[in-house]
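[09:14] KT: can someone run the structure on this one? pasting the chain below
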Amino acid sequence: GIASSGGALFMMVLVWLYLLAILLPTISLMVRRLHDSGKSGLYLLLDLIPFVGGIIVLVFMCLESDGPNQYGDLDSEFDI
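[09:31] RB: done, structure tokens below
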């Protein structure tokens, strides 16, 4: 099967490479969103708290922005 032929190891290496490739962009997007909602990027460290840390950070990122910032005005309606 796939486990005995080394295919599983190859797939595991591919998954790890993918996770490493998306780690930095994900962190930067989360920090940007926290800045837009008026919070410090250091709030991302709350994610290290087991079980509830991720929920707290998610709630902070879902909060509405404080208004105009260096990235543009607040758009509460989507142009779809």
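[09:33] KT: thanks! Residues 7-36 form the longest helix (30 residues).
[09:34] RB: yep, looked fine to me
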